[in-house]
Amino acid sequence: MHSDPDTCDLLVIGGGINGVGIANDAAGRGLSVLLCEQDDLAAHTSSASSKLIHGGLRYLEHFAFRLVREALGEREILLAKAPHIIWPLRFVLPHERHLRPWWMLRAGLFIYDHLGQRVRLPGSRAVKLAEDNPLRPDLLRAFEYSDCWVDDARLVVLNAMQAHAVGASILPRTRCIAARREGAWWQVTLQTASGLREVRARGLVNAAGPWAAKVIEDALDLPSPHALRLVQGSHIVLPRLYAGDQAYILQNVDQRIVFVLPYEDDFTLVGTTDRDYRGDPAEVKPTRDEEDYLLAVIGHYFRQTVDRQQIQHSYAGVRPLLDDDDSNPAAVTRDYTLSVQGQPDQPPLLSVFGGKLTTYRRLAESALAHLQPWFGQMGPAWTAKQPLPGGDFASPLALEQELEEAFPWLTQAQRRRFVRSYGRLCWRFLAEARSAADLGEMFGAGLTAAELGYLCRDEWAQSVDDVLWRRSKLGLHLNAVEQARVAEWMQENAPADS
């Protein structure tokens, strides 16, 4: 066991999906790992996605076959690793003659079905739309195919928890402000809530997402090997537009596609947009034009009319894409590039440019392969078959039945949410309870003091946003008074160093 808290084999900058994925894989291979994140885990890009684990059907148009094949393979692996936060989702793709032709869609879906491994998910098929479907009555034909839903922020937190369980130090709200090479080490200065901290690392991983180039140039005082193109993607949340568990993938006249997804039982999630972004990635917000764009797509395809007053919530994220000089933001590659700077006799710097949720695990394996020359003692890859925390159960339905037997006083809504958020981890805050009263104060939507205490203690939550918008989406279900009470409770009870 590594004993010196101020030295480590690998220091990872960035607590998004790529950073925690690399930290988790490295720690499980026997390296001592410290991860620092300037804000909360998944505070930015990794919690602002379309919530999908998918191969990327539209990437086939840009001939990104390697990326799609890798993503389709990972789709199967992740579905097995995290059945509590990832589950199958059936997509309906309605056809309009003046957009992509029928034969092109059929060919693309055939490739999508066969390019990568597909074991758990059914393949695509052509369908006739029923008369009572929620789309315009003149839309008669469509395709169906499968991908997966994911709770993106929880995917990040669960990887961080697994990394911590195998020895990694996870430091949210800790910023790397300077790093320099000194002999065989990186000497790193961290800014924490209590002041500056100096640590030494044998290797440095820059997984700062939209800030990756800035970290290299400002904190490390080195030239960045690649430029990033920051592309803003925004989403809106509407009241539920239709019954059923299916999602829709809609083609717009500008050749972009928009996803329409069932969300948090009572809502519909619509996104995303693609527009170049210049500014601080932490300050990104949906624009009125983007919201109008998404509303117009819904208005074009759905029978139900929608307007701005129906928007319940909106969010935006900045995708840090490798700048390939394409004039169309939607066409910029979603693939990732790993860059290693450092001679064999120098401590390495590995930087991550680009990437997507679905391929984070493969990206981590590739990153450690690049670092192998400096860390010959590391063990083999291990994450492909290891469930994420809470994911060791046969099926969500079986686990929900197990919860009902163990805690019959839980509501059905609580049981379902606990299975879909925590899997077996929910026993950590339920195990000692014998009645609903034992869970403490009820804040609304099934959220209790016992669950809040767990999130602060075991999942690094410190603020009301950490709880209501990242580790859960209960912000959609609690009113302003209830949210304020959650904030008060956290100020009164959350440990300062959680």
UniProtKB/TrEMBL annotation:
One of its GO terms (cellular component) is glycerol-3-phosphate dehydrogenase (FAD) complex. It is an enzyme of class 1 (oxidoreductase). The keyword Oxidoreductase applies. It holds the Pfam family DAO. GO terms for biological process: glycerol-3-phosphate catabolic process. Keywords: FAD, Flavoprotein, Oxidoreductase. This is Glycerol-3-phosphate dehydrogenase. It catalyses: a quinone + sn-glycerol 3-phosphate = dihydroxyacetone phosphate + a quinol. InterPro entries: DAO_C (IPR031656), DAO_C_sf (IPR038299), FAD-dep_OxRdtase (IPR006076), FAD/NAD-bd_sf (IPR036188), G3P_DH_FAD-dep (IPR000447). Belongs to the FAD-dependent glycerol-3-phosphate dehydrogenase family. Residues 383-492 form the Alpha-glycerophosphate oxidase C-terminal domain. The keyword Oxidoreductase applies. Its EC number is 1.1.5.3. NCBIfam families: PRK12266.1, PRK13369.1. It comes from Halopseudomonas salegens. Its cofactor is FAD. PANTHER family: GLYCEROL-3-PHOSPHATE DEHYDROGENASE (PTHR11985), GLYCEROL-3-PHOSPHATE DEHYDROGENASE, MITOCHONDRIAL (PTHR11985:SF15). The lineage of its organism: Bacteria, Pseudomonadati, Pseudomonadota, Gammaproteobacteria, Pseudomonadales. One of its GO terms (molecular function) is glycerol-3-phosphate dehydrogenase (quinone) activity. It comes from the Bacteria. Residues 9-330 form the FAD dependent oxidoreductase domain.
